[in-house]
């Protein structure tokens, strides 16, 4: 699984950005006196060229009435690198939730020397209260061929805007009427209405099940291989460069319920040679359907000093065969009890990946997060069906992704426990972290609700079924 440090470092300035977003900054004045909406802009990519254009917005309602966000459109104007060039949009993070944010591209006609395209950002739901702000809309777009974009000649771009301030070269429309900003010539036609995209229907009919309650003696149990699991022992990422992945970091202890659980152990003395991580993975044969696991996350180590940036996971993945491999995919539950990637405290991420490149780093993904403790046992459910990826934690919908992030090729199922490079506390005292997994379940080509997953798992256990696998191999 790739490191996400470069992508998530941008979240490090979140607190300052939110303060700026909600502050009563001076307004340049809306386009019309009767209008109440105002836009502030900044960019986190200030170069003349960039891998991705990163316009970040916050919309402020200066009026006395709430504004339905479904009627609000934002337009960012730019000059395409070529007439045939195609672009893709992504929402990295949003206070209002990326699941409610849309992005489409249009043409400015007639074009100008600085604008012949625009990115139109909309919302599927939500309401903006009087004297309130949307908070951060951390957005980005990039070329479909992954080449660098020249943005220095773009109408709406400003390299000097590294903190939020009013910006009238991005327009805001409310119910089709211009509410803020000045568009380039040809850029003022009414925005398109929000359209719910049509997706293919979900697959129907169960095509196999995998269930495992991890009833194994130890990491050398022959049934692990027979059941198509692998205990990782090879070197490499993610995590601390030079760390090892010993087989004995995987075990199967009894837990309070009387069942056995998969246990992953990670230890460190603050050095690469003294750092051990753990991973347990299933063969590649999973694509559409429902994935679920009951996982115990830990906020503190079993022993030793606390504070290391450690990642506790349940995820699916397709290997990256080359930089920006279009067949790559990944869907992650990642819990960081001590922060990391610019975060300072507990945070849960769910991330869906289209692809990535290691050098220079380019991440093409979308994620949601909640800053809270998830210490203890949790039911994690991932549904991949009908062009949508849905993440649930303890029965509640946590995130929904789709579009280019929907997986195209078969994936493996993985659990790993690893330390973020550069995130070890400054102590030579050995510390030990663990993550446990009570069971794993997958229903191929079937959407199973979180409550139904628990019912089926309980049914297997009631009949003393420890393992079943009727999903064909890839």
What would you say this structure looks like, in words?
- The protein is mainly β and 474 residues long.
- 7% of the residues lie in helices and 39% in strands.
- It is built from 4 helices and 30 strands.
- The protein has helices at 5-8, 14-22, 222-226, 450-462, and strands spanning 37-43, 49-50, 55-61, 67-68, 72-78, 87-94, 101-107, 117-123, 127-128, 137-143, 149-150, 165-166, 170-174, 177-180, 209-212, 229-231, 250-251, 262-268, 278-282, 289-297, 310-318, 329-336, 347-357, 362-370, 376-385, 388-393, 396-402, 412-419, 431-444, 467-469.
- The strands form 6 sheets. Strands 15, 17, 18, 20, 25, 26, 27, 29 and 30 form a 9-stranded antiparallel β-sheet that branches.
- The model is unreliable at 1-34 and 195-205 (pLDDT under 50).
CA radius of gyration: 24 Å
Instruction: Please tally the helical runs, counting DSSP H or I stretches of 4 or more residues.
Output: 4
Main β-sheet: number of strands, strand sense, barrel status? 9 strands, antiparallel
Q: What structural class do the secondary elements suggest?
A: mainly beta
Q: What percentage of amino acids are in beta strands?
A: 35-45%
Terminal Cα separation, in Å?
20 Å
Helix content: under 10%
The overall pLDDT, averaged over residues, is 89
Overall geometry comes to elongated
- List how many beta strands DSSP finds: 30
Low-pLDDT windows of residues: 1-34, 195-205
